[in-house]
Amino acid sequence: MYNQGAVEGAANTELGSRIFLYEVVGLRQSEETDQTNYPIRKSGSVFIRVPYNRMNQEMRRITRLGGTIVSIQPITALEPVNGKASFGNATSVVSELATSEETANSEGNGKATPVNADSEAKGFAESSAEEQLKNKDKKGNTMTQAKAKKDHGDVPVNTYRPNAPFIGKVVSNEPLVKEGGIGIVQHLKFDISAGDLKYLEGQSIGIIPPGLDKNGKPEKLRLYSIASTRHGDDVDDKTVSLCVRQLEYKHPETSETVYGVCSTHLCFLEPGAEVKITGPVGKEMLLPQDTDANVIMMATGTGIAPMRAYLWRQFKDAERAANQEYQFKGFSWLIFGVPTTPNLLYKEELEEIQQKYPDNFRLTAAISREQKNPQGGRMYIQDRVAEHADELWQLIKNEKTHTYICGLRGMEEGIDAALTAAAAKEGVTWSDYQKQLKKGGRWHVETY
What we know:
Layout: H1 5-10, E1 19-25, E2 45-51, H2 55-64, E3 68-75, H3 93-97, H4 129-135, E4 144-145, E5 166-175, E6 185-191, E7 204-208, E8 222-225, E9 239-245, E10 248-250, E11 257-259, H5 261-267, E12 274-281, E13 294-300, H6 304-315, H7 317-322, E14 331-338, H8 347-356, E15 361-367, H9 381-387, H10 389-397, E16 401-407, H11 411-424, H12 430-439, E17 443-447
Parallel strand pairs: 13-14, 13-16, 14-15, 16-17
Antiparallel strand pairs: 1-2, 1-3, 4-17, 5-6, 5-12, 6-9, 7-8, 7-12, 10-11
């Protein structure tokens, strides 16, 4: 039985569609009325219900009719609209899409979601059965990783392959969720000094768990984003670190609690234990070399892993000392979605950077079970993006700005909706502009 999981399940309302409410001012009745000399209604707000898959078409139509989109808000497909933008107590559909580890620990075990067996030559392998079920989208795809648009020929890739993995050893395995938090998330550090595993910030490594799968075949690797800089947590080029959540969910038929094979294996490893490591892989999430860049980061849960690597490289004293050629002087903004305050992974590290570099780093948290969005529902990452959409849009237009998104795939729609509204105020079609960002290598996404 296919398990839709929290992301896909929430993406479907009772009518099978996602609806957004456009508030528009200055809208003419039709293009033909331009030719008349009698007064045309051009004041007050008009509210238009728009399916997600027609958002950009509707924005173009509104622009042709001289209208200006004031806001875009998510509503349920069944909710009545009376022209007063009354949302009642309905939960934001877009908010449900990115539950930030809300339902059955749906975030799983970080980004351990390879694509398929045929892509092994690119550093990926088929994931385990339960992870495939957990992480597939409606088209049957697993982890979404946009393809890098720039040549990164000097980036290390596939130094170690599944048929000849590197054997690392656990240096430490520390809990990241504080008392009262939800789930198990661990920061694992592996000793790689005996090999030649070099990597860059934004890449991933594969972990091959021991044992056999349900078909009696050796377990295949799972991919995890690296949470340390190229020099490792100790800045001695001898370690690599991961941020891993134990995957836990209910079986769709039996309601039995199921735990991820690899994530459970990792979360309970003791120091000194051996681990089979492959990779590194990935060129899409690499940081720009420009030290004056603006870096926008949007993450849910263990999607913080690559963001931590970026921030350490940019701001940590030992890293700055080790990278004289890279002294970051730009601006980084992290928007981080978690369910509770104890789930703010690396909280102390982030607050230390914010305190030391207040002009260069900004931290914005969306704590869904403790904070409310403007509609009175839970505060998710896309609600924060909507709150700061105009400011983010101005940053994104800057050619020095790179945007990174890592975590639950569902949050992408809410982010797009917020930026669609902000861009529309200047007559820009967000989907077209976003394509140019991707083509220019300034829009980086890894979601699952």
